[in-house]
Write a structure and sequence with these properties.
It is a single chain. By secondary structure, this protein is α/β, with parallel strands linked by helices. The protein has one domain (about 5-125): Response regulator (Rossmann fold, 3-Layer(aba) Sandwich). About 45% of the residues lie in helices and about 20% in strands. It is built from 5 helices and 5 strands. A 5-stranded parallel β-sheet has the order 2-1-3-4-5, with helices on both faces. It is globular and about 35 Å long. It starts with a strand and ends with a helix.
């Protein structure tokens, strides 16, 4: 089995990413971008979590990041996000920079996500 990736599914581009990751031998689980996202991520126990926050519902994503990073079972799990560079995002990035948060400032393509995933997994070992 390859690296386990939880792809938080909120944007159509995330399906393309999931498909590409599977062709490159990643073990991919899609988690819905809703109130159950945290439970889904916990069930998957991934090596890395991937989220695209560049479109709606961005507010939910910003709220879930600190929850993921402070959860005892997920706190060491790297989190790769794609987002627009807003003041709120930049403040959050500064606060969480030392706890495995990898940020791609949009637009985000599949290759950018894969590069960030590989970096996050290699640095997390």
């Amino acid at each position: 089995m390859g690296t386990k990736v939880a792809v938080v599914d909120g944007e159509p581009a995330m399906h393309e990413l999931a498909d590409r990751l599977e062709t490159e031998n990643y073990e991919v689980s899609l988690c819905p971008f809703d109130a159950e996202v945290l439970n889904c991520i916990k069930r998957v126990q991934p090596d890395v979590v991937v989220m695209d926050l560049s479109g709606p519902p961005e507010a939910l994503g910003l709220n879930i990041i600190p929850i993921i990073k402070t959860d005892p079972t997920l706190s060491v799990t790297p989190l790769v996000i794609c987002t627009s560079p807003t003041p709120e995002v930049e403040q959050l990035v500064k606060q969480l920079a030392r706890v495995g948060l990898y940020v791609i400032r949009g637009p985000c393509g599949v290759d950018e996500f894969i590069n960030a995933i590989e970096q996050a997994v290699s640095e997390g070992k």
